[in-house]
Design goal:
Elements: H1 2-21, H2 27-46, H3 56-70, H4 75-86, H5 89-115, H6 125-133, H7 144-153
Helix pairs in contact: 2-3, 2-5
Length: 154
């Protein structure tokens, strides 16, 4: 019984020591780093993956190191902060919501600048007019003869 108590006491001390010795990134810096990580993952999946001569894990690691250096942090501090915020869902949700809000506003501004409209995107008559003239997407269906040729070839 004494050994069990001693074990849990030592475990408790080691956990608190580790948590206190590691600096957690502030939420605003964590927002920036998470956004950079999201972009990095998308870049890796969409562009680097196309090059079969590249090792995705190695390339992703190299790019992460560039990001960490740019923001004066390191992999250990980032992942410790990430795990810290994951364990505190209310704080993590605020960080993610802030990222989404900022990027939504940026996208709306970019879209408004592109179409030259100063009205809000939500409920815009201008957008309705655009889609009346041209559908938001076009889907080209293959001709019947093309489908028949493909079936015959298989």
């Amino acid at each position: 019984m004494k050994n069990t108590f001693f074990f849990f006491f030592i475990l408790f001390l080691s956990c608190t020591h580790n948590e206190l010795s590691i600096k957690i990134l502030p939420p605003d810096k964590m927002e920036i780093l998470l956004w950079e990580q999201f972009k990095l993952d998308a870049f890796t999946r969409e562009f680097i993956a196309r090059d079969s001569s590249k090792n995705l894990t190695v390339e992703n690691y190299k790019l992460q190191q560039i990001i960490f250096k740019k923001y004066n942090t390191n992999k250990e501090q980032f992942y410790n902060s990430y795990n810290y915020y994951l364990s505190r869902q209310d704080e993590f949700k605020i960080i993610i919501d802030n990222i989404v809000d900022k990027k939504t506003k940026e996208n709306q501004l970019a879209f408004q600048n592109r179409i030259g409209s100063k009205t809000s995107i939500k409920g815009s008559v201008f957008l309705k007019d655009i889609f009346k003239k041209r559908p938001p997407f076009s889907m080209s269906l293959p001709l019947q003869s093309e489908v028949e040729e493909e079936v015959i070839m298989q």
